[in-house]
Amino acid sequence: MEGSERTTEPIDAGVDIGHVHLKVADVDRALEFYCGILGFELMQRWGADAAFISAGGYHHHIGLNSWQSKGGSPPAPGTTGLFHTAIRYPTRRSLADALRRLSEARWPLEGASDHGVSEALYLADPDQNGVELYWDRPKDQWPMTPDGGVEMGTRPLDLDDLISELRD
Q1: Rounded CA gap, 10 and 83, in Å?
Q2: Which CATH architecture describes the domain 83-168?
């Protein structure tokens, strides 16, 4: 904010993103993607217009609603809004399983990158919301700059090597 004082204190390291709530055109269609393909669990349904889904029994990681967007279309290019929702997988093998699920469903990828600190798959959900599926490498494997900063980049991700995680 203009004229406000900025703090030099970093935010508490325990702060994290608890959930994302997405406006969708059709909740059932969104559930087919997030639960039917990616494997999230339906935790609660609020009629035809809202649903709450999670991984591992948490109350919800993703909320889906059509309260203001039923039958709507995605935002036009060149407008502001959410770039993507990033869903972190605990292991490389679990990310490989996500790739398998997408492949079996013939869901198109928009990209796949090795960022040094992580490996990521990029796609769009049925409402054209950006989705990143990724896993973080252990922190001691992150590439670092000479001055001790994190050095992220974008290199192509070898999908054959990733999917080979499932053959081990």
Answers
A1: 24
A2: Roll (3.10)
Q: 3 in the Ramachandran plot: left (φ > 0), alpha (ψ -120 to 50) or beta?
A: left
Q: What is the pLDDT along the chain (168 residues), one digit of tens a residue?
A: 455 667 789 999 999 889 999 999 999 999 999 999 999 999 999 999 999 999 999 999 999 999 999 999 998 889 998 999 999 999 999 999 999 999 999 999 999 999 999 999 999 999 999 999 999 999 999 999 999 999 999 999 999 999 999 996
| pTM for this entry | 0.91
Residue extent(s) of CATH 3.10.180.10 domains in the chain: 18-69, 83-168
Which amino acid is it at 48?
A: A
